[in-house]
Amino acid sequence: MQRILLLALLLALSVTGCEKDRIETTAAPTEPLTRSALNALVEDHLQTTDRVFDWNDASDQVVWSALTLSDREAVLGYQPADFENLPDRIHEIEVTAGEWKTTRDRLVADLRAATERLTGEAPTDEELFVAPEDGVLPILEVRILHPGVLAEFRRRPEVRYLEPSNYSPEEIEFRSDSGCSGAPAANLDGEDYYTVAPGAKVSWTYEPMGIPQAWTRSQGDNIGICIIDSGTYPEQDRLNGNFGNGRELTRLGVYQPSWWSSRTDGPDDQCGHGTQMAGLAAAPLTGTGSSVGVAYKSDLLAIRATSDVIINASKEKRGVKDALVIAGQDAGTQIVSMSIGDVFSSGTVKDGVYYAHNRGKMILAAAGTSLSWTSWYGVIFPASMNETVAVTGIQTGTPYLRCNTCHDGSEVDFVAVMQRREDNGRSTITLSRNGATPGYVGGSSAATATTAGIAALVWATNPGQTREQVLQRMKAASSLYPGRSGDFGWGIVNADLATR
After folding, report:
1. What torsion do the CA atoms of 279, 280, 281, 286 make, to the nearest 10 degrees?
2. Model confidence pLDDT, tens digit, residues 152-193
3. Architecture of the domain delimited by 190-498
């Protein structure tokens, strides 16, 4: 089995601005590649360029091949033909009025006409449209039913991107060792935590980052963290009824599990990953013996946007985009933490990131976590975007070594200590599915949620700060600053120094 068949699906989480090479095969889109041939092409791109796979850089044949292998589901990003700098202006547009509505209506009418002309049949709404529009972002989710339609629309000036939205390298969905879990630890090592009043467990990983010392001046008060992930378990009371007096907790669900229904399945975790990440960032300080989060007085917006850690299905890309819009519009949210991603770029998710970023949110994203034999790959999407803050995990000690399942690379901004060098099974502790006994979690997922908590501690020292001011304070308090590593960014953020 080719390695790419596992790679994109084993990644537990996250296009550069440089010029990209065109991913070509032949000019004719009518003869689709087999799944194995397409997977081989993707793997070759990843290995030779060390960049995420962007469908915009692929030939019509490559894109059509992916469409034929994924029910022809596509996403079309549009704009008026003369519109410029959309990534910087996407939060200002009104898609239901003016030239935006005119452009949208013309594209829909032409898509219908082209499909009928080339297939010989008029498509029904059910055949042509995959999902309703959100009324905020200029995106259409459609089915491309003929290769000629693909070729024609990819070259229209109003079309920003037209890409497969539901392609995965393999039918079976794999999860990595830092993906779905949430079980309490069977044997919690006493050296992996210490207890503070009134009886909470503090992870051993907090000390190397100066978090306990930072708590003397900041606990994250009046700062909102949004965790976009697999949701939170309702039976974990520390993320429910006992979250803490005076704190705001909002649990939402935007993930739509069924292709035939627009209904979501609610905010409840069915994977465990989202619960773990929320626990690291913002679990309360209690006397129950459970683990405490980094920003234990911050507000929390926990959104179920994916079924697991990989943003590979169209419904997961849609969910992440919808969650980013919610976070972007929420005045009480300053920080967004995303311990999810893929090796494939997504225009849908990009637009969501642009939107939330332009509304002043600090978006932290995991650089990537995989099994050790696939961690040769660099930073994944959306951590590879300039608009996100990419985080990965490292082992204790020097020189820096990435944790054994973590990715690193030039896009990494910060690292967090996540693993004992002498024992790679000893990672950070966090909330488990229920009760007070913590579980273990590691990888760049955990590093990202931990760093999101540190950002909240820094922001809470002066809630009127801008994202750029907070980020600069984090950089200045990092272990490698003013230098920057080609693999580990500015290094470990010292929360004690950053909050002074």
Report:
1. 60
2. 999 999 999 999 999 988 633 444 334 788 889 999 999 999
3. 3-Layer(aba) Sandwich (3.40)
